TrEMBL record:
<dbReference type="InterPro" id="IPR029058">
    <property type="entry name" value="AB_hydrolase_fold"/>
</dbReference>
<comment type="similarity">
    <text>Belongs to the NDRG family.</text>
</comment>
<dbReference type="InterPro" id="IPR004142">
    <property type="entry name" value="NDRG"/>
</dbReference>
<feature type="region of interest" description="Disordered">
    <location>
        <begin position="211"/>
        <end position="235"/>
    </location>
</feature>
<dbReference type="Pfam" id="PF03096">
    <property type="entry name" value="Ndr"/>
</dbReference>
<feature type="compositionally biased region" description="Polar residues">
    <location>
        <begin position="226"/>
        <end position="235"/>
    </location>
</feature>
<protein>
    <submittedName>
        <fullName>Uncharacterized protein</fullName>
    </submittedName>
</protein>
Length: 235
């Protein structure tokens, strides 16, 4: 889960909401509404340091999203209730086993994400035997955009810890990861992939995706690989 918020609305968030909605209408975007959404998705640090990402998000909202739909969605989000999950503990008699998250989960956030404290709180409410926490340096709220390679690496290690993709090694796919990251960076800068410059191109050897590794992505569970133990991890 990326930037998961499991609590209900707090009083400080209520203040930010009133500021964002003070001039909002059902048909038009307002500066206060833009500021709140950009802060929510990116965080204050990324908002001040990466103007290009702010510009991209703002124009995406303005050109592709209707203000009245966003306002309706936010109204529902602000009325949310807390997710009823508890960590089962032998020393605690208040924990309800039926409210303990049974599946394995990876809680992901950025070091400067506005939801970092909420993610830590959510992770503390999950079972320590099945929950893991990953925090990325030099990253705000937009983890998928700011640090895609670190995110994919964390997910790969998490799956290997569950016994999947145990034979997948990093060197064989490092070229592909680098190409994906460079392509995403070029698309953010120029908005098109119709003509990629030579410096963004790289040769991928056929052996990187050899058919002899056909079991790398199968669905059969394997023994725990031990490469990603259930602990707090920083990248």
């Amino acid at each position: 889960m990326v930037n998961c918020v499991s609590r209900s609305m707090k009083w400080l968030e209520n203040v930010l909401i009133k500021r964002a909605f003070k001039d909002a209408t059902q048909d038009y975007w307002t500066e206060s509404l833009f500021d709140y959404l950009i802060w929510y998705h990116l965080g204050a640090d990324t908002q001040s340091s990466d103007q290009e990402l702010v510009y991209m998000l703002r124009h995406h909202l303005e050109d592709n999203v209707k203000a009245k739909n966003v306002i309706k969605l936010l109204n529902s989000f602000f009325k949310r209730t807390a997710i009823q999950i508890d960590r089962q503990n032998d020393t605690s008699k208040k924990a309800d086993p039926s409210r303990t998250l049974q599946c394995s989960v990876l809680n992901i956030t950025g070091a400067t994400s506005p939801h970092k404290d909420d993610v830590i709180e959510t992770n503390d409410r999950c079972d320590s035997a099945t929950a893991s926490y990953a925090e990325f340096d030099d990253c705000g709220g937009a983890v998928l955009i700011e640090q895609p390679s670190k995110l994919s690496e964390a997910i790969r290690l998490f799956l290997q810890g569950l016994g999947y993709m145990s034979h997948l090694s990093i060197p064989r796919y490092s070229t592909a990861n680098r190409l994906a990251e460079q392509t995403a960076e070029y698309k953010r800068q120029y908005g098109s992939l119709t003509k990629v410059p030579r410096r963004y191109s790289s040769q991928v050897q056929q052996g990187d995706y050899a058919t002899s590794y056909k079991n790398d992505f199968d669905d059969k569970p394997r023994n725990r690989a031990g490469s990603f133990s259930n602990c707090n991890t920083k990248f």
